[in-house]
Design brief:
heterotrimer, A mainly alpha, B alpha+beta, C alpha/beta, A: mainly alpha, Amino acid/polyamine transporter I, about 75% helix, about 0% strand, globular, B: alpha+beta, five-stranded antiparallel β-sheet, 18 helices, 12 strands, elongated, disordered N terminus
């Protein structure tokens, strides 16, 4: 083998990280805090562990079919019709998540930066940018993701500055373990939905199979570990900067604590923060559009000559169209609920089902 | 749960072990290359030995060795000729002069670009034809003459300006040096440096090839001369090192060039447009340079250079984005200093692209970002300006481009006047007439200066142009517009290819070890291997050059 | 294909331009407010006084503008009607709260600042004795740069540990925390001059009392909030002939204060605040500070004086029911069971708080 540029572990790790970090990062602390109070950080850690278990399961299927993605082996395992319908569920799931991301992000952008600009323009700009990179191959997408991952470091630095300049009160973290296991688990569920994105391993596996099955698991686990720790860190920062009742009234606490930062030269660092965050939103959007496009390409391979660009344009048009419908936050929340229900199916039930079948019938795609 | 974490631990451990294994493999690979390098040096040493010591004994040993090395012993002159041609990779500037003397065929091999043909004619060819003496050695009137039987030595000596005289039915080879005279030194106007070589290319292709040959006296340096243009028949040469450059790259270039069917090509610029990957991209994908040392160092990295008759500009491909931030001087000054300037250059690139847009976003969307101490002075300078910020910035940027265009073509003394009239007089008047605000003049001036910091002229122009769409984005959506604009630019750069190799290479795809020569300039002894992207045939560059530290530490 | 694309791009760009820049807010057109005061009038209507800076012949001048209304936003609308350009409070660096308004419930009035993304929640906020409007009016007549003057007044006071460092955001955190109250700098007019009068004590959302500057420094020392310097004067004797001889001035160089809950049973809550401070003598006419015995004696004298003052301070805080030390937060964090059983509002004035300050002289300037 020559030293050709190829997909590496780093790229897989950042692919997953960039998908996991998205809209959720801003609202997560507030959402989790509303249920598990001062033990929220435990909820996040716990949901990280749960996700690790799911990742192990997904990896378990993936390694049985190293050269195939979910869209391939679904038909192989349970037949043409059932497999195709599973694929269609995943395609719909990808589009739904994409449009949910668009809904939340456009709402936050409108709230914080551009209150008067029409929503469709914000959505169109985000979608077009995502399509521009999403129509490329895994190599290009993942190298773009790696480049912009440097910006996450900036996010962390800003949070650190907040911790050192702001009058934080560590006592807000106490009493530990007082909110009860039930609440912690419920909070973990909230956190879990902000950490979605690891399911991409189902379709990325074949692209990264050459790095070795253990390395695939390793890099996805590292991504999950990083995201879990990052969220925990942000959770702790928000908790020590805001008093509990205050935190409940702020829907985007991460932005809010950056806003209250006043450095000698600049004010409103939240704008800077939101700019970095927009890129994370675009990467998440790209990943899900990519998921759906990949699904379309494989499932409707009869019309493959149409190509990636057409599919992704079509899918993103649907996603942004759906994203334009809701007007109020409650309507977005309704959509959120629907997607959460759906993610239970796509993330837990279907993979578990496929995993079970592949073990039961000793079916595998290995040569 | 315990089992899960346990398995994760195992995976982790395994990962590290494989990592370690890979490291050892790389070192092994490097040692192998050193070995190759050493054996290479060994042959040269042998040659020198043979030259100094005409002892029969050594000759014999050598002959034996040769026999062992390549089973067949070369007899006929045709075979010898082919051997030399193979050794020099059929480079197009290898000339062979044949003549007959006393019924024996004599062949003279020399490199067209390096050899002084007049003295070759007077000192060798003419005497050979005129004289009736049998022994060629006594006919040649050259001051230095080396006799050898080893063809490999001949191959090594030819790129140093020697000509090789070969006689039919004789084992002996005669080597005589006829190096070309050095032409006068001309420093390229647009790539001046303080410390380092001041040699620039001329406009004659063989002269330019000579410059490169002088710096890389390797038999592996290959030159392919061709003509292009149905009518103009312009000469161009592809230059590369045959044992470093990836043959794939070469094949790709040759294939792309083979599609060029045109009446005439005047300059490398037209070449560039015909064979580059993305014509509509604002980013230059091939490097233009007039500096010999720059071309040479790029050749040594495994790239390919194209020189054309009638143009002092060499075209280098494939290149990455960061090649445009490197200057020849970087490798000549101290590592910390050149690293600092590298960072400054990249910073200036960012400023050139973003600053005007950022300023527009500030004063027309989010002026609460501006510190309270400054906001009042900016506001008071803006008070009477009639234009919206975008128009204001566009006016100033366009004026700047006008000045630049005007100053380029004028002779030096007049262009200075333009600078004064345009820069000083107009700048002050425009502000005093309240057409443009003071701060905008400052912003545009900083943008202009930082754009001129970028070493490559093409890149500096294109990033000033890139500022305009960003400015529009900023005027429409403020910070959000800038972010979207920058993201699109970044995506474009990630997608961009130079000869199908990633343009933003050490960043995307990410390669930590290659960052040593991009964002910073690490010490030369740290850059032990060539970057991965060019897929060179061997990656070894230096081995443990600072091994002497160990020797000196011992006492 | 490419030509078609270009045409489309141009069309889209033109459409954007025609539609206009929705959120554009030109700096040129904004009238920046630098300082504003909020007062409550007789009929509970709010009166906002704002200072807008203008350039007149190259010299910045203040323009005072007032508005009335039922909400802060209404007063802003009122003021906007009186101004050319857009009234813009996003660079407002200081807010003055009138005494009457502060005594009501400041949270109700500050809500708009937390809600608006462009407002400056890192601005300083102070309480005024009397009406804030009077201070701004007085200063406008003198034509100084009001906002700058006030901010510098505050920041120098913050640096010398005279008043706590607070901004709009940080008091929100305290307002919504049941276990901790806060204090704001208090300024007043004295002989037509604006002076720092002390610190206004808050309980929940309302002003309940005030501390003198000395007390305020002591409080900051006891809660580990010493800034650059913290100068203090203690009386150490009664009998000396000249008044100045009875006093000693010093600077706190190192402060280590600990709050400890000794007993946390719901019936009997005992808290101890123990501060160990290092001081350097700034002024002591008696000199002879090289004597170890003398230093020991001074140590105990100053400790006694400080502890007595601290006791008085604690009494005052308890009397006005302002939990500045955050004892409630301590209970929530470490004694949650007790916290659930008690009604902190009623309990706080009755708990036992014993302050103790231990002084150690570590320096004395360049003479002994």
């Amino acid at each position: 083998m020559k030293n050709r540029i190829n997909l590496t572990t780093i790229q897989l790790t950042f692919f997953i990280i960039q998908t996991q970090i998205g809209v959720g990062i801003l609202g997560l602390p507030s959402n989790v805090f509303s249920t598990s109070k001062q033990d929220s950080w435990m909820s996040i850690l716990f949901s990280g562990i749960v996700i690790q278990v799911i990742i192990l399961m997904m990896w378990g299927i993936g390694r049985r079919f190293p050269s195939m993605s979910l869209f391939h082996y679904s038909t192989q395992l349970i037949g043409k019709v059932a497999g195709t319908s599973i694929n269609i569920i995943y395609i719909i799931y990808g589009v739904m998540v994409a449009s949910l991301v668009l809904m939340y992000s456009s709402a936050i952008i409108k709230m914080w930066v551009l209150p008067l600009t029409p929503k469709w323009i914000v959505i169109a700009l985000l979608t077009l940018t995502a399509v521009y990179i999403g129509k490329e191959t895994v190599l290009e997408i993942s190298s773009f993701f790696v480049v912009v991952s440097g910006l996450i470091v900036l996010l962390i630095i800003i949070s650190f500055i907040v911790m050192f300049t702001y009058p934080v009160d560590w006592r807000f973290l106490f009493p530990i373990g007082h909110s009860g296991i039930g609440n912690i688990l419920r909070g973990a569920k909230e956190a879990y939905f902000s950490m979605l994105g690891f399911e991409l391993i189902l379709i990325l596996y074949p692209y990264f199979q050459h790095i070795g099955e253990k390395k695939v698991l390793f890099s996805v686990s590292i991504a999950n570990l990083f995201v879990t720790l990052l969220y925990t860190f942000l959770m702790v920062v928000t908790m020590v900067t805001f008093s509990p009742d205050e935190l409940l009234t702020i829907p985007q606490p991460v932005l809010y604590f950056v806003k209250s930062l006043y450095l000698q030269i600049v004010e409103r660092i939240d704008l800077f923060f939101i700019s970095l965050w927009i890129i994370n939103v675009i990467t998440t959007l790209t990943s899900y559009l990519f998921l759906a496009t990949e699904g379309c390409l494989i499932t409707f391979s009869k019309y493959k000559n149409k190509g990636r660009t057409i599919y992704i344009l079509l899918l993103s048009a649907i996603a942004s169209g759906v994203a334009l419908i809701p007007n109020k936050e409650s309507e977005i929340d309704l959509m959120n609920k629907a997607v959460s229900q759906m993610s239970n199916v796509t993330l837990l039930i279907i993979p578990l089902f496929l995993f079970g079948i592949s073990i039961l019938f000793r079916e595998s795609g290995r040569m | 749960m315990g089992q899960n974490s346990f398995s994760l631990l195992i995976v982790l451990a395994e990962h590290y072990i494989t990592e370690l294994f890979e490291v050892s493999l790389v070192t092994f690979w490097m040692y192998k290359n050193i070995y190759i390098g050493n054996s290479f040096i060994y042959t040269i040493l042998e040659g020198v030995l043979a030259m100094n010591d005409q002892n029969q004994n050594t000759q014999k040993i050598q002959n034996e060795k040769k026999g062992i090395e390549d089973q067949r012993v070369i007899y006929t002159i045709i075979q010898k000729e082919k051997y030399i041609q193979d050794g020099l990779n059929h480079t197009d500037d290898l000339f062979i002069r044949e003549l007959k003397k006393n019924g024996k065929l004599i062949k003279i091999f020399f490199l067209d670009s390096l050899t002084d043909k007049t003295s070759l004619e007077t000192n060798i060819i003419k005497p050979l034809i005129d004289s009736t003496l049998n022994d060629v050695k006594h006919v040649i009137t050259s001051a230095k003459l080396i006799t050898t039987t080893n063809l490999d030595i001949a191959i090594e000596m030819i790129p140093e300006g020697y000509c090789v005289i070969m006689e039919e039915l004789s084992e002996k080879l005669l080597l005589a040096p006829f190096p070309n005279e050095h032409s006068s030194r001309t420093e390229p106007e647009n790539e001046r440096i303080i410390r380092g070589s001041h040699q620039g290319f001329g406009e004659n292709i063989s002269e330019n090839v000579q410059f490169i040959r002088e710096r890389i006296s390797s038999s592996k340096l290959t030159i392919t001369l061709s003509k292009i243009g149905e009518t103009s028949k312009s000469k161009y040469a592809l230059i590369y090192l045959s044992d470093i450059t990836d043959p794939e790259i070469l094949k790709k270039i040759e294939n792309r060039i083979s599609y060029i069917q045109t009446d005439s090509i005047q300059a490398p610029g037209a070449f560039e447009e015909l064979i580059e990957d993305h014509t509509y991209s604002p980013f230059p994908q091939f490097l233009n340079t007039e500096r010999v040392d720059r071309v040479v160092s790029n050749l040594m990295e495994g790239r390919v250079a194209l020189v054309m008759d009638g143009s002092p500009t060499a075209l280098i491909f494939p290149v990455t984005f960061f090649s445009f931030f490197q200057t020849a001087e970087d490798y000549n000054s101290r590592t910390t200093i050149s690293s600092f300037f590298r960072i400054i250059r990249i910073f200036c690139f960012i400023i050139t692209v973003c600053l005007p847009a950022f300023y527009i976003a500030l004063i027309s969307f989010n002026y609460e970002i501006i510190p309270v101490e400054i906001v009042f002075s900016i506001k008071s300078s803006l008070e009477f300006v009639p234009f919206p910020p975008l128009i204001e910035a566009a006016i100033m940027q366009l004026t700047l481009e006008l000045l630049r265009e005007a100053a380029i073509r004028l002779p030096n003394p007049i262009s200075q006047t333009i600078g004064i009239v345009g820069g000083l007089v107009m700048g002050t008047a425009v502000v005093e007439a309240n057409f443009v605000s003071n701060t905008m003049v400052i912003v545009v001036a900083i943008t202009a200066i930082s754009s001129f910091v970028i070493p490559s002229n093409e890149l500096s122009t294109s990033c000033r142009i890139l500022g305009f769409p960003l400015m529009i984005g900023a005027a429409l959506f403020g910070v959000f517009g800038i972010v979207i604009g920058l993201t699109i630019i970044l995506i474009h750069m990630c997608k961009l290819k130079s000869l199908s190799l990633p343009y933003l290479y050490p960043l995307a795809p990410f390669d930590f070890s290659a960052l040593k020569d991009t964002l910073i300039r690490a010490p030369v002894w740290l850059m032990k291997v060539r970057p991965k992207d060019l897929n060179t045939q061997y990656r070894w560059k230096t081995s443990n050059a600072r091994g002497w530290r160990k020797d000196e530490k011992s006492d | 294909m490419v030509r078609k694309c270009t045409v489309w791009v141009i069309v889209v760009v033109i459409v954007f331009f025609l539609a206009g820049c929705w959120d554009q807010r030109l700096l040129k057109e904004g009238r920046l407010v630098y300082a504003s005061a909020f007062d409550l009038q007789q009929d509970e209507k709010i009166k906002t006084t704002a200072i807008v800076q203008d350039m007149k012949n190259g010299i910045p001048t203040n323009v005072l503008i007032q508005g009335e209304g039922n909400t802060i936003r209404e007063t802003r609308m009122d003021m906007d009607n009186k101004l050319s350009g857009d009234f813009d409070p996003s660079k407002n660096r200081i807010f003055l709260l009138g005494e009457e308004l502060a005594q009501k419930d400041i949270y109700q009035f500050l809500d708009i600042f937390y809600r608006d993304p462009s407002s400056s929640i890192s601005a300083n906020i102070v309480v005024t004795e009397g009406n804030g409007e009077d201070i701004l009016e007085k200063m406008t007549q003198k034509n100084t740069l009001i906002a700058e003057f006030l901010i510098e007044l505050l920041s120098s006071a913050e640096n010398s540990t005279l008043v706590p460092k607070q901004d709009v955001q940080s008091i929100w955190t305290n307002m919504l925390d049941p276990g901790k109250d806060f204090a704001l700098p208090l300024i007043s007019l004295k002989d037509d001059e604006v002076v720092l009068a002390g610190t206004g004590l808050f309980h929940k959302h309302a002003l309940v009392g005030s501390l003198t500057l000395e007390e305020s420094t002591l409080f900051l020392i006891m809660s580990n909030q010493k800034k650059k310097v913290a100068r203090f004067v203690s009386k150490i004797s009664e009998e000396k002939e000249m008044r100045i001889q009875n006093y000693i001035s010093y600077n706190f160089s190192k402060v280590n204060s600990k709050l400890k809950v000794l007993s946390a049973s719901p019936e009997n809550i005992e808290v101890e605040i123990k501060a160990k401070v290092d001081i350097t003598i700034l002024e002591f006419p008696e000199d002879k500070l090289s004597n170890e015995e003398k230093i020991q004696k001074l140590n105990s004298l100053i400790s006694k004086d400080l502890t007595a003052k601290a006791e008085k301070l604690v009494k005052k805080l308890q009397a006005s029911n302002s939990d500045l030390f955050g004892i409630g937060r301590e209970l929530i964090a470490y004694h949650p069971k007790t916290w659930e059983q008690i009604e902190w509002e009623e309990e706080y004035p009755n708990i036992t708080i014993t302050p103790e300050i231990e002084v150690d002289i570590v320096g004395h300037g360049i003479i002994n």
